[in-house]
Design brief:
single chain, 351 residues, alpha/beta, TIM Barrel, eight-stranded parallel β-sheet, three-stranded antiparallel β-sheet, 11 strands, 33% helix, globular, binds (4S)-2,6-dioxohexahydropyrimidine-4-carboxylic acid, binds zinc ion
């Protein structure tokens, strides 16, 4: 008999976009009812570049939570003019858990990103010194590089040298999409990890072109060939602590995606844990889901695992076609697992 209920230590989302204002109010509950903590991306329209910005944004999130037990973990958006002292202040104040490197123009609201890593060397050196992790959007923006090769070229041109030049810097290669990225992380020195999204585990690039152009399957880094999806699945279910959960849930209005120049981003918060459970079950690895969702990320960030639990149940979960003005990931599909709710504290040992 397959299991019908699965109780996990409550998971954390180590990479999410919660936006701001009305959109924040609309999407936050989907993350906060499932995940105990989340690393909140700083790519607001006016990016979160100072400790003051991060603290104010955290307050807006906390005011929006409405009763859920949820802790937002804040990041700073690095620019060409980021100041090492500001970054250190963020770390020392406890407001900032990591800094995010967006190569300039790589993705949504990345216009103010870093044009050349050479410009942030003093910041990286300080982060290395104090122990603040660097979160990386790993794509080059060189228009001569094929869009499907941007991650692999980023490894060669930027990430491999960076990891070597700052041997003590902790780095999360966010939302990896290729077999090469998986291999890079696996073969790297200590302190290098990666997040993996539900969508990159479930779709390959064909999903964008199924019977016509499908903007709701478009995100960055873009989904790659099937061989890469299979490598990501293998990494996620491997139990290796370097690979952990990060949804990259990235809400946009449907109209902004169904456009002549549609936004990148997949809104998966409403389905994320059901989707991960489905993938792990398909891979015969449900027993390793908790490692990926609830242990490995906390260990990387040096945080305790959560004491409360999340209960998933095997029951058809029909994903709505729309949620407000948005189209969620897997809209209209039915998943075999759904979130039943939070459970109480575990009695077992803290692993
Ligand atoms: O698809 C994406 N959407 N990738 C990103 O890196 C950013 C995100 C967003 O903020 O919409
Ligand atoms: Zn993201």
């Amino acid at each position: 008999m397959p299991e019908t209920r699965l109780t996990l230590r409550r998971p954390d989302d180590w990479h999410v976009h919660l936006r701001d204002g009305d959109r924040l109010a609309q999407v936050l509950g989907e993350t906060a009812r499932v995940f105990a903590r989340a690393i909140v991306m700083p790519n607001l329209e006016a990016p979160v570049t100072t400790v003051k910005d991060a603290a104010a944004y955290r307050n807006r999130i906390n005011r929006s939570v409405k009763g859920a037990r949820f802790t937002p973990l804040m990041t700073l958006y690095l620019t060409d003019t980021s100041d090492p002292d500001e970054v250190e202040k963020g770390y020392r104040s406890g407001v900032v858990i990591a800094c995010k490197l967006y190569p300039a123009h790589a993705t949504t609201n990345a216009e103010h990103g870093v044009t050349d890593v050479a410009n942030i060397r003093s910041v990286l050196a300080r982060m290395e010194k104090v122990g603040l992790p660097l979160l990386v959007h790993g794509e080059v923006t060189d228009p001569d590089v094929d869009v499907f090769d941007r991650e692999v070229v980023f490894i060669e041109r930027v990430l491999a040298p960076l990891v070597k030049d700052f041997p003590g810097l902790r780095v999360v290669f966010e939302h990896v999409t290729t077999a090469e990225a998986v291999a890079f992380v696996r073969e790297s020195r200590e302190g290098i990890a990666a997040t993996i999204t539900p969508h990159h585990l479930m779709i390959n690039r064909n999903a964008m072109f199924r019977g016509g152009f499908r903007p709701h399957a478009y995100c960055l880094p873009v989904a790659k060939r099937e061989v890469h999806r299979l490598a990501l699945r293998q990494a996620a279910v491997s139990g290796e602590p370097r690979f952990f959960l990060g949804t990259d849930s990235a809400p946009h209005a449907a109209a902004a995606k169904e456009s002549a120049c549609g936004c990148a981003g997949i809104y998966n918060a409403p389905v994320a844990m059901a989707a991960y459970a489905t993938v792990f079950e398909e891979e015969g690895a449900l027993d390793r889901l908790e490692n990926f969702s609830s242990h490995s990320g906390a260990a990387f960030y040096g945080l305790p695992v959560n004491e409360d639990t999340l209960v998933l149940e095997r029951a058809p979960f029909a994903v709505p076609e729309r949620l407000g003005d948005m189209v969620p990931f897997l809209a209209g599909e039915t998943l075999p697992w759904r979130v039943a709710g939070l459970g109480g504290p575990t009695r077992g040992p803290v692993l």
